[in-house]
TrEMBL record:
<dbReference type="GO" id="GO:0006397">
    <property type="term" value="P:mRNA processing"/>
</dbReference>
<dbReference type="InterPro" id="IPR048821">
    <property type="entry name" value="PDE12-like_N"/>
</dbReference>
<protein>
    <recommendedName>
        <fullName>2',5'-phosphodiesterase 12</fullName>
        <ecNumber>3.1.13.4</ecNumber>
    </recommendedName>
</protein>
<comment type="similarity">
    <text>Belongs to the CCR4/nocturin family.</text>
</comment>
<feature type="domain" description="Endonuclease/exonuclease/phosphatase">
    <location>
        <begin position="299"/>
        <end position="599"/>
    </location>
</feature>
<dbReference type="InterPro" id="IPR036691">
    <property type="entry name" value="Endo/exonu/phosph_ase_sf"/>
</dbReference>
<keyword id="KW-0540">Nuclease</keyword>
<dbReference type="GO" id="GO:0005759">
    <property type="term" value="C:mitochondrial matrix"/>
</dbReference>
<dbReference type="InterPro" id="IPR050410">
    <property type="entry name" value="CCR4/nocturin_mRNA_transcr"/>
</dbReference>
<keyword id="KW-0809">Transit peptide</keyword>
<keyword id="KW-0378">Hydrolase</keyword>
<keyword id="KW-0507">mRNA processing</keyword>
<dbReference type="GO" id="GO:0000288">
    <property type="term" value="P:nuclear-transcribed mRNA catabolic process, deadenylation-dependent decay"/>
</dbReference>
<dbReference type="GO" id="GO:0046872">
    <property type="term" value="F:metal ion binding"/>
</dbReference>
<feature type="region of interest" description="Disordered">
    <location>
        <begin position="86"/>
        <end position="110"/>
    </location>
</feature>
<feature type="domain" description="2',5'-phosphodiesterase 12-like N-terminal">
    <location>
        <begin position="161"/>
        <end position="271"/>
    </location>
</feature>
<keyword id="KW-0496">Mitochondrion</keyword>
Amino acid sequence: MWRLPGARAALRGVRTAVERHSRAEAATETRTDAMERAVVRCVPSEPKLSLSFALADGSHKNMQRDQSEPLGRVLSRIATNALKGHAKAAAAKKSRKNRPNASGGVACAEPGSEPAAACEPVVKLYYREEAVAEDVLNVDAWQDGAVLQIGDVKYKVERNPPAFTELQLPRYIMAGFPVCPKLSLEFGDAAGSLFRWYKEAKPRAAEPEGGGPSPLSPSWPSPSWTETGVDERVYTPSNADIGLRLKLQCTPGNGQRFGPSRELESVCLVEAGPGTCTFDHRHLYTKKVMGDALIRTVSYNILADTYAQTEFSRTVLYPYCAPYALELDYRQNLIQKELTGYNADLICLQEVDRNVFTDSLVPALEAFGLEGVFRIKQHEGLATFYRKSKFSFLSQHDISFHEALESDPLHKELLEKLVLYPSAQERVLQRSSVLQVSVLQSTQDSSKKICVANTHLYWHPKGGYIRLIQMAVALAHIRHVSCDLYPGIPVIFCGDFNSTPSTGMYHFVINGNIPEDHEDWASNGEEERCNMSLTHFFKLKSACGEPAYTNYVGGFHGCLDYIFIDLNALEVEQVIPLPTHEEVTTHQALPSVSHPSDHIALVCDLKWK
């Protein structure tokens, strides 16, 4: 009999003796001649472990047991469960007037006897072909590669195999738009997992007249499936898939072994797409990921759902937009396709709902090699994504403008100027705007680091002086990061700055100073005037120039978005052309059925000097 060595740590070096299979074999293996599987999840930070397996009667057991409990108690409980399962199965057989028959070695009664006459099966746990003593604690007993025997049925114990903790398909799927499942794994990763996509062999019949189950109802006959030939994480349905449901078969892995597979069927049918979108022509310029010498950068206000779904938005701001095109599920399809089609290295987004970041953007962009960080404001926030093959994440230095202005000594001089104007000070400190700052390092050359800043300044048309002060705080903070914390690293500053090229904010950024008599200091009238002169030491340029507009709605159009770059270290290789005016106004204004936001993405290729 196998017993636990005196020191529990002695077990930590034990390696799995399970035969390794290739990825292809793991995806297609039928396991008809293989041992059954008993899955154990045991995490040091949790008091209980879980044990999952299927009994011979077909019932599935999922047990939660204390890690510090002796093994014998668990084995006894398994025996009791197995006996109950056998009794139920035997009773069912008898009720169908079938000959009683003990299955799986569970029953020891003679054929024809009552189910109650069955005795408990022999339940043992073996490790290295020796029975594990019943006084060994669960945490030590259930080792990877052990064998659980229930009667004459054997189960291979798999301790902490890769597993999906979350797996979802989008609720709205359109032909021509990538379908990116949301997934989370434990003891595994997406790169080491297997995916296979299926579609219905034929469309489901229409709903019958006079009631009855819907084609999407669980009571409707199960569909037959055909392989799509796609074994990647992302699947893009074609027009041939319209009217069909999709199914995804996933096998979690970690590059060394695989866990239990799962299947997921879409709850919706594939629908027709909107036809040509505003970004389709732009994608012709961004078909490939750029080489290491270039940095493709995107800045985009994607229109927060919290703003798009208001009655004011539907009836006043965007009355020209079809209501369904303002729905989040619809817009997410367009946003995902647009962003993934740019093949960007850096993506800075504004007006990002938290759930959009976690449920939509992260799954979609991760599948295309990008990783992201998020900074909440109030109802929405900022997101910065970077290509993992090009950059590694070093540090994050986000701030809230009003908190930094009040508490950070870095802004003491600016605050001393502002307190001379109490009305203006009060308005500035009420604003919730934030700045997201990420420091990245090149994966090819560790000496190359870059400071990526992202913001969304105060929106009100009369808030010019507030935006000036917010920008002064932003540039001082960015200087601290790029000069004090990481001396000499270049800066890319993206965002929706809510300022046209004629404003004081833009003048301040480009020229490095703003005089105290600039008209924007009185942008909200004389009562809130706050005259002061400001300077900064950066030499910045708008990488995409000054487009006629980056925001186009029914009552306004103008250039509000910029990608500012450090001219001392970076230069522009290429600016991806914006959509034509005809494309933007096809449906009157933005957003529309072919464009998911009221803003237009800025896209450019930058290179190190």
